[in-house]
Structures are given as structure tokens and as C-alpha cells.
Amino acid sequence: MTTAIKSIVIVGGGAAGWITAGTLAAKILNQYNEGIQITLVESPKTPIVGVGEGTWPTMRNTLKKMNIRETDFIRECNASFKQGAKFVNWCNGQKEDFYYHPLVLPQGFYDINLVPHWLVNPQNNSFSNAVCVQETLCEAGLAPKLVSTPEYVGVANYAYHLDAGAFAEFLKKHCTTNLGVTHLLADVIHVNTAENGDIASITTDTLVDITGDLFIDCSGSNSLLLGKHYEVPFISCKDVLFIDMALAVHLPYENDNSPIASHTISTAQDSGWIWDIGLPTRRGIGHVFSSAHTSVEQAEEKLHLYLSHFSSNTDQLSVRKIPIIPGHRERFWEKNCVAVGLSAGFLEPLEASALVLIEISAAMIADQLPTTRPAMDIIAKRFNETFLYRWRRIIDFLKLHYALSKRNDSDFWRDNRHSNSIPESLQDLMTLWRYQAPWYMDFDRAVEVFPAASYQYLLYGMGYTTEASPKGMSQPNRKLAQELFNKNAILAQQLRKQLPSNRELINKIIEYGLQPI
Questions:
Q1: What does each C-alpha distance from 393 to 100, 290, 419, 453, 459 come to in angstroms?
Q2: What is the average pLDDT value for the chain, to the nearest integer?
Q3: Which of the four, 106, 131, 228, 378, has the lowest number of CB atoms within 10 Å?
Q4: Alpha carbons within 13 A on the beta-carbon side of 157
Q5: Spatial separation of the C-alpha atoms in residues 201 and 270, rounded to whole Å
Q6: What is the pLDDT of residue 131?
Q7: Is the pTM of this model over 0.90?
């Protein structure tokens, strides 16, 4: 009889390690008739990078499946609600240059493509404002739900902003206390190989060998198992995505009742962009840039200039320098080892892709967890194909932000529009979209990280021109489109009157909690 998978060893903590541990442990507890031991080995010396403070709406389901109360998560992780991203100065850098990438789908999205109808008659309305309510809610600083709305349920779709360090500690406590995960603090000093090339065990600095049937590499950019042990090549995408450095800072609020933005603010600079994320107790702000186009000193000047609009004491703030090596591994699952998080790769913080990649990686491992070693190679092949596709599509989507810009104030923006820096797959889509708006058939996988709606918000937020076409413009469709535009306008005004501010809702949750489902 074939030996069953009985033990999983996760090397590395942080968000990657603990999301993976929690996702696997919850799935095993709920669906297996006998347990699989999960051990997480974490170095006591490795600090959490903590850049990924933005999430996708998928995080709600991730937490819910771990049986975590949303109230506890918000209280303990310094979390706030996120309803999308506002991109400032990305189109041309002129006054009033902004657009939104919301988290709700356009009205009637599964029945009709509203893009052609909006292009014919935009009525002085941005695309996102015409087709969904979220731009109105974000501009007014409103929350996506009421305190009486049950946990994980939204009036408008939402994700979170969170404190990455607090989040990792919160998940660690939950996984070890409620989900049966064993936690060891130790440094891995050697990887021991079996005859078939699998990892048999790891040796730690406590001189203890930890055996396992499946090893998950969450060791960060060190990539101890997949990178250093198996020497799986790293594919750089520096020729496509130029960002390779971040300067990060925490900015306190002026007072305890300062507004909390209900969206990520991404403000373009001459050689990169600045993120601005509102948490209940502070703002996380950082400048990511291309070192080939500007110096660290110049980038820090830009950051302090941005901060000076909100604080007069910016010189007192501690700025952290974080190198970024954009790219990913050629394969993510090798033998009995799979990488999740930074050990698999990293691109840049734009569109908060880092945490969602961790979530969907952990979910696929949990959903398709091989029961025996012979099954593992098939699952590994499937995992590698799926995630190579996902990484490539994310690279295309991130690059599109830069390729569409009309800014001409620096080589950074001009170089980003050069055809030799734009993947052929994206060039093909951009050509297609000159003649027809993005829709389902443009993407050949059932589950996309960024669906057609995301491309619509980005393209038409940045003023992309698609030629008029008779496709979808029948009289019944024109009638339906106008009804949906009117419905959206009415709903936006209704919600503007009903919903509390982001700050008000967070304060009420901290004091009273949300209704359990």
C-alpha cells in the first residue's frame, strides 16, 4: 500500500507561513477523518517585511474558513476597510488626474458589457462612477457596511488594510491555539535529502531533525528550500517592471478622529509612485521607485514632500529602505517542496498582489493536497502551470498601469511605454482593445486574479480609446444600459446617505463588535 501524506513542515512564518498553516489546518480539520501534523519552523531572527498591508476581498473568505471572527481580526490587526485603489497623477500628471479601480463589478456585469454604451455617452462621468457606487463611497470616506451588517458581509464589496506584523502574530496565536499547528522557533542550518531527491528532513540550530512528507517554503526572499536547496532558477522581470526599491514610513494621525481613507491611494511620481494606506492608528506611506531612473536621495526628497502635506515633523520619522527584486521562480513546486510568498517571487506593491498570491497558493495546496507521494508529482505539475499563468497575467496587469500613461516628464514613463518593455501577450490585448472592450473571452482561465472588469476600470480610467462598434449596441441593450446607469446613480446617492464613515464604523466595531453570521 502507498504511504500516505502524514506530516507537513512549513519553513518560515510571517503572513505567508501563517496564512498557509491556517488554510491547511482548517481544511484538514473540517474534511479529513484523520489528522495530518502541521509544523511551522520560524527563525527567531528574521523580521517581518510588512510591506503588504493591502488585501483583496478574498481575505474575507480566507479568514472565515479559519473560523476567525471578523471583529477579533479588526481589533487585533489594526485593520480598516478597503474598497479599492485611487490612482492619482498616473494619466498625465495634471490637476484632477485620478481614477479608481473599485472592488465591485460594474452594474449588470454578467448580463451586459457597459463599456461601449459609456464610450458613446459618458455624460461627464468617469467610467467607474457611471457603472458602480464605489468611487462615490470612497470620495466621501464612507465604509462598505453598517455596524449591524453581519461579519464578512458587505453592502459594497470590500477588502482590508492591515498591520502586517500584528496580522502574523494574530494568525500565529489562532493557528497554535485553535487549529493544532505546532510552532518551533529555530533556524534551519541544513536540508537533508532522500534517495529520490525529496527533502527528507531539515536540521535546525537546536540540532533537531524535523521530518516531513511535504515541505512548504515560506522563508521569504532567502528561498531556503526552493531557491537555495533545489536551485530552481529565478526569472527576473526587471525588463518589464522597473520598480526595485521602496522607502517606507509610518505616519501618525493628527488626532484619534482623523478620517481613515477607505481605499489605497497610489500617487505617481517622476520615477515611481507613493502608496498611502490608512489604518485606525496610523498611515502606512511609502515611495517605490526605479533606481535606474532616480537616486535614493531624490526619492526620499519626493517622499518627504508628499508627507509634508500632512505633517510638519517629517524629519523625525524613521524611513525604512527595502530592496525589491521583481520576478518569480521558474517553478514553484519541486519534488516534495512548494514555495509560497516571497520565496516564490515578488513583483511590486501595486494592486496588492502579494497577499492574494499567498492566499490562492495556500488555497490550491489545501484543495488539492496530495494524499500520497505518487499523486504529488501530478498536483505539482498542475500547480506550476496554474501559477506560471497567474504570475504572467499579474505582470501584464501591473505593466498596463505604466504602459497606458501619457506622462512625458521623465525617462521612467517614456521607457515604460517602449514596446521592448511590454510583453507580447499584453501588446496583443492592447491592440485587441482598440477595437473591442475587454470581456470574458479575452482570458482563457475560469479564475483570474484580475478579471475583465479590472481591465475595464484601468483602461477607461486612464482614457484608453476603443473604436465604436455595433457589437452589443442593439436597442434592447441600449435600453438596459441606460436603466443600469440610472440604477447606479440612484443607489450611489442612497448609500451615501446611509453608510457611516470608515472611521466611525471602525470605532463602533472596536467598541461593540460586529454581528456574528
A1: 20, 22, 17, 14, 16
A2: 94
A3: 378
A4: 18
A5: 49
A6: 98
A7: yes
